[in-house]
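Q: For a teaching handout, I want to show students what a protein-ligand complex looks like in token form. Below are the inputs, and the small molecule is beta-D-mannopyranose. Please produce the holo structure.
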Amino acid sequence: MLKINFNDNWMIKDLQTEKEFEIRLPASVMSALLDANEIEDPFYRDNEDLALEVASKDYLFSKRFEVDQKILAHEKVTITFHGIDTIAEISINGHKLATTENMHRIYEWNIQPFLVKGENVLNVMLFSPLKYIEEKQKNDRLAGVDHAVDGYQHIRKAHSMYGWDWGPKIPDLGIWRDVELKAWNTNRLEEIHVRQIHEANRVKVMFNVAVENEGDQSEITVLLKDPEGNMISQSIIDRRQKEPLIFEVENPHLWWPVGYGEQSLYTIEVSLKKDGELIDRLTKRIGLRTIEVKHEPDEWGKSFAFIVNGYPIFMKGANYIPEDNILPRTSRERTERLIQDAVAANFNMIRVWGGGHYPENYFYDLCDEYGIIVWQDFMFACSIYRLTEQFEQSVRQEAIDQIKRIRHHACLGIWCGNNEVEEAMEHWGWPKRADWRRDYIKLFEIILPDIVAEYDPQTFYWSSSPSSGGGFDNPRDPNVGDVHYWEVWHGQKPFTDYRNYYFRFCSEFGFQSFPSMKTIESFTKPEDRNIFSRVMEKHQKNDAANGMILYYLSENFLYPKNFDALLYTSQLLQAEAIKYGVEHWRRNLGRCMGSLYWQLNDCWPVASWSSVDYYGRWKALHYYARKFYDPILLSIEEGKHDASIYVTNDHLEAVTGRIEWKLRDNQSTIIRQGELDIEVDALTAKSCQYLDFKDDLQKESKYQTYLEAILYIDDQVYSSTTVIFTKPKHFEFLNPQLQVTVDENDQQWIISVSAKAYTKYVEIQADQDLILSDNFFDLSANERKIVTVDKSSLTKELTKTDLEKALKVRSVYHITH
Ligand code: BMA
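A: Here is the structure, written as tokens, with beta-D-mannopyranose included.
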């Protein structure tokens, strides 16, 4: 088979102005106009407003290409569009091939009959995605969220491109994935479906291979290579047999999520031969593993637990949204950095949220390689969908396209029908219309599970997130299935409210913060730097959020001295809130089996729930996540006058160690102390020590006393934590007089920080972005905290003096001083 990448030499034409620009795919109207300096960066200040005008027009994408006799001689010549965004008419040399209306589909057409020798013209007319939904919504008003352009749910296009409560309204148009030309004769490989049967020390790998022309007797060979690249089995498929081909792999190298073992990947190569000549080949990488979801009645309700290779594993991670609102700006490098950030923060799961788009192949490749399990939503979120015949056809085919593309990946853990549609229909005050409910049940509880059962029967299907199993049966039940918990934040409940629930799996909960000053500088002028300014409000998409941040601020911290201190404090609030929930659920490991906070990343520079901002900068929450998702978590559940020290062990082996605890005053003088040896079984959380401090936490001392706990493993400090017994705003923090020194070895910068008094949330900053081994940490007086930076992670070389000069430190005391 001849395959030609068709991304080069395209033109885009604005049909109103008749202006034309050269482009290379993937490309969008916004990216092309930006590259041609025709528009200003829509992410800067309030430029977003221009985008709706751009998106209200139609554009022509076209490509002229030469075809020679060699190509024309093939029986079939097809053109494959891996992603068209969205409403389009495709034609070749004036012959209309098709119209499209689903960005999530992969389209292919035979163009052989229309090709001519010499120059050919391929046209893709892209029509305004705004006009399209306006029309549809006029005829059939469907409920949805109000922060997106009205009617967005009528089109199969990433909802969040129309705006979300963290996303700009930039409903771009384009050809967002590769285009390929393929030419072949007789036959070709269509697809391969792999299933696995795990037995003691053996995996049976079953293959089903489909070819385009089943009547043709070309020879199909399947070959399996182990993770080192050695061939372990090879066989020719007997085409007369309908049974799948089975390879038995003895002593398999299993694939594990990160932290549990290797991410071993086997390779399958399928080749198609005609009269001894290779005519097509297909390669896939798979992992040998089982991932099941246990959803069974138990003493608390009904579980929701991921069982990987037989072990119940607590899922730790966050929700993933599109990485950029302007799709061609994304890249493998950016995605890899984000996944490395996830791994650095001890994630083992990422949930691909249903209001965006299905990620690129490299996203799943990277998750395979790094050991991140993917919770995959189908792309439906927070809305009613009308199952017209055309819509149903379109989403059926979309599901089939995407399942076939993704199903072989080791990382794929679950298919989920939608985000929050069942919950919205029950609890968001929408009319309970029978036609809406009928279409919901049909799509999410009949059509999609049937398609998953047919095309990927080994992956668990869950109808909605959150859900208790479907059928509008109390989707918010805290004891059944998964839960999205938003009472902290949207409901203005205190952080402590998380402790009232023992969810089986919390797949969403979140808290907003502002990004760092550097990120804000990227889209503002100095005069915009006030959170209520027009520009800052443009970059805050949740109307209630600034008020919410200020409310929680008033509950927890002193009033910040300036804008930068406010940004810093907002990140502390976010980090503390999420830590409160996660530590509690991990202390209840077994009953609760997963925590995915909202949200990992941003699609533009904005105030949001993310822990990593648009530029990849870690907020305080991401450093906190690294600690609260540590596989061995030391945590303190503090009461008014008492505390329990817990250790949660996510490893498959028991852990032994020693805990030291010290009750100290604000100058870190020890009031009481103790130590204990601990042993915590595999996959268990244990309350190791209960401490009663009624006598120590008297009227005044309550505001000056903190508890510190240190966990030693193999006589080395493994981690430490502190708690106070009042809100930070009421604690009498003294001036810590932070001292910083810098040292280096070949690989690392070694920064050491010390304080003259107890302080919290010590942040180290520099001009250059640094990813530190720890940040936003607590510090007792006269104790040295060592933080390292890998030199290889820096974008610019630094000398010791440069770094010493550039370093800035602050802590809770500096919110007001
Ligand atoms: C959840 C998500 C998103 C939203 C977020 C914050 O419900 O599913 O729709 O962005 O809350 O409000």
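A: Two things your students might notice: The first helix runs from residue 29 to 35. The pocket of beta-D-mannopyranose is lined by residues 164-166, 355, 381-382, 419-420, 484, 508, 598, 609 (CB under 6 Å).
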